[in-house]
Amino acid sequence: MNRVSVFLSFLFIVFILSGCSKSDDCNIPKIEEKWPVVNTDSIFIDLNNSILEKKRKQIDALVEKTRRATNLNGTVLYAENGRIVYERAIGYNDLRYRGKKKPLKINDVFQISSDSKMFTAEAVLMLVQQGLIDLNADIRTYIPEWPYEGITTRHLLNHRSGLSRYETLADEKWRDKKIPLTNELMIGLYVKYKPSPYFKPDNGFHYCNINYALAASVVERVTKKKFGDFVDENIFKPLSMDSSFVYMMNPDTTVPTYFPRGIQGHYIRKRTRFAENEYLNGVTGDKMVFTNVEDMLLFNNAIDYGLLLPDSTQKMMFEPGSTKRRKNADNYGLGWRISGKHKGCAFHYGWWKGYRSMVLRDNVHNRLLVLLTNTDKGANSENFWKILCDIKTEIPKSSVNISYLETKNGCRFPNSGYRNR
After folding, report:
1. What is the DSSP annotation of 68-135?
2. Is the dihedral of CA 315, 321, 324, 329 positive or negative?
3. What is the Cα–Cα distance from 406 to 409, expressed in whole angstroms?
């Protein structure tokens, strides 16, 4: 159609409309405006999907290889740049019977054994930030009756106190094994029997559960709260770690046969059986955190974004605690082992009474791998390190909705520097 034709058509329409009175609609039908409903999913293309799918297949191949080789039974999560790339529940929650079994779910809660130590270190550092704990002060500042001098909270967190195992002391001196041993009662055993330390404070490194049990006791003395209550109020609830808790027992009760919450652990023998609860489980700080893989991601996001602590304090967790170590040997920070083989990586393994777990962090590439199991026969860590350290396929960054957490929980993260990043 040429320009003249268009112009004449326009004049004709104007003439028709001008001949209509206000009372006469000229029989022109009214057009009801309706916006079409468009499914945005049909027009939106996530260019990252192919990368994510490739990464998931690579991870699943290694997880499946481990499952076949070790009878892996648990849950696994891999996240990169704040994004869950892979998660899978493998096996069953009760392995005792060969009949119909209930499969594990990704949100099932496991005891994470010694991986609990990272929460103990976080709790201590929060009180350091508030000026309530001095890492370099003698712990008798907080526990006056403690019978050994020269031990600081830093020594405890770095496993450089030289103290002997409370498990051995309790095995010999705690007569009624049906009554829970708590942190306060554990302190009483050391005060009464004064077992000889392995070495003088800061004179060596020895990984020992007494260190973190005693660090939890420092938290209790300073805050006048049970350690589990402090962690719940100051870590779990603010971060929406709704499935997580610290298992605690009262000293005036007998030890329950099994844990009332969470997936039960197993001893894998010729005849598989539940790992029964016991009196040592009344001691917290070194163990007894129950959580799931997605809550562990929330905690690690808090570390990455400085939600609970300023970066200057938070980074202390990953600073080596022992200066004299063999080349490429692992070191220990505050609640985390620092890998000598995998530069820029920190990790922790857990193993206690029917549970095994591992948490691997790549602080350079912002990666996290969490494995939680309910058996005492753990999976070999080699394939999981391969997953963490594979830099061939990098995942684009994703956002973490910190403001949503603050709004949901009615709290603020005043120490966080995430808004400035």
Report:
1. HHH---EEEEEEETTEEEEEEEESBS--S-SSS-PBP-TT--EE-GGGGHHHHHHHHHHHHHTTS--T
2. negative
3. 5
Cα end-to-end distance, the chain, whole Å: 57
Q: Interior CA angle at 385 toward 382 and 387, to 5°?
A: 115
What is the per-residue pLDDT across 261-299, written as a single tens digit (0 to 9) for each?
999 999 999 899 999 999 999 999 999 999 999 999 999
DSSP letters spanning 313-344: HHGGGGS-S-SS--TT--EE-SSSEE-SSSTT
Dist. CA 153–CA 139, nearest whole Å: 6
Indicate the pTM of the whole model.
0.86
- The amino acid at 141: T
Tens of pLDDT, residue by residue over 86-111, are 999 999 999 998 667 899 999 999 99
pLDDT, position 101:
83
Structure tokens at 202: 């800061």
Order of strands, edge to edge, in the sheet holding 110-111? 110-111, 289-291, 245-246
Rg (CA), the chain: 29
Angle between helix axes 49-70 and 382-389 (nearest 10 degrees) is 170
